[in-house]
Amino acid sequence: MPAAAPRRSGPESAGAALGRHRDFRRYLTGQTASVAGSSISSMALPVLAVLELDASTAQVAWLMFLGQLPPALLALHAGALADRHAKRRQMIIGDLVCAVALATVPAAAAMDALTLAQLMAVAAVQGAAGVVHDAAAISLLPSLVDRSRIQRSNSHIGALYAIAATAGSNLGAALTALLGPARALLGDIGSFLISAWCTARIRAREPNRVRSDGRQLRADIGEGLRYVHADHRLSVLTWVNATTSFALAMLNTLWALYLLRVLEMSATAFGVVLGLGALGAATGALSAPALARRFGPGPMMLAALAITPLTQIPLLLASPGLGWEIPIGAALFLQLACAGAAGTTQRSIRQIITVEGMRARMQAVSTWLTSGARPVAALLAGGLGTWAGVRPTLIGGTFLLVVPFAVLACSPLRGLRQMPDPPPSPAGPTEPSPPRLGPARTGDSCPDPSLDGGAA
Fold first, then answer.
1. What spatial distance separates the first Cα and last Cα of the chain, rounded to whole Å?
2. Of 456, 443, 455, 450, whose CA–CA distance to 19 is shortest?
3. Domain boundaries 18-206, corresponding CATH code
4. Where are the domains of the chain?
5. Beta partners for 430?
6. CATH class label, 224-421
7. Which positions make up the signal peptide (predicted)?
8. What is the rounded distance in angstroms from the CA atom of residue 196 to the CA atom of residue 94?
9. Which positions of the chain have pLDDT values less than 50?
10. What are phi and psi of 147, to 5 degrees?
11. How many CA atoms lie within 13 A of 390 on its CB side?
12. Which DSSP string do the residues of 109-178 spell out, in sequence order?
């Protein structure tokens, strides 16, 4: 007999329950620290390469490319591993490998032995370990909270991630100025250790794991690809993610160049615009559950995808001067608010409708497609920008943002009025595990900051 659907909590009770949930606080604290730390590295590594190692433009591009390549190559394998093995252990190993690899940079710099080749190797290792960690982290969340709280959990995560990324970039700039770029990386090393410590303190037992039965990993990967392809809802949302990622990667490749060079925006104004974008992402993520309840998840995501191309209009019409900086900042706020609302909602839907033994592989398919799209889009943007100019390339990227809207508009998901029900538990060769942990008791809490009310 199918299990009874879990009792739905209202918005206030759900939020309060998450605030008292020890395991969710530990999870959120660790992941937020990791996001902030990664933003420090994103700021410090290019500075270290350019100023300390005198890297050329091509060498800096290779450094960025090697950091982005592992998700495209390893996401499917990492997802299959996360469905086979303990997710928390995989997350901790990923964090510790990142910390050790990154620690070699300030150590080598202190001995005056740092080379660009080492920096590239560290970027590649860190990228690979990050893929292993993220595949397990994203698929672990549904086992920590009840189904009725998945969307609100993703809302908290999306908002905090947006704020943490901006705070990490600012902290990275400050540490780079005070300590130098090599020692600034100590902040990211510390963030990985915090993430590993918080993950180790999660007490909830994980759900069923897939038994390998001697099968090769590629068999599990193929099963994950077929699973996503067979479910039209997963397939549609995955292609929405991939096409959105491709279009935004084209725009983002030339966006900073366009603002700073063509529109002659000052560094201060550019920083303010980025801050508005982060605030928009947090606002969209936090408002997603309420918008989904009011309008339905399908219509809300469709509206967000329809608004996103329109937010590019001020950028395309702008000319140098303060009069355009305010509309551009407002447009970026709205664009990332739409991305935050739609992103947290589609991720929640995918987590809810996927059976427990397939969540990591389902997420890995989306990561593989979106990560693979970004380098291709960046190369295309660079070629078109050189051949046709920056503004025509941005216009082309804006038109590509219509594609994910069309994909969702042609799907029955456009009319989804409420969050879907979870699938029945599959009958398969899995290891039994105790039921997932409900809201934690308020006593014996982890010494994490309160994250109640706090983010693809």
1. 35
2. 450
3. 1.20.1250.20
4. 18-206, 224-421
5. 210
6. mainly alpha
7. none
8. 9
9. 1-16, 427-456
10. -55, -40
11. 15
12. HHTT---HHHHHHHHHHHHHHHHHHHHHHHHHGGGTS-GGGHHHHHHHHHHHHHHHHHHHHHHHHHHHHH
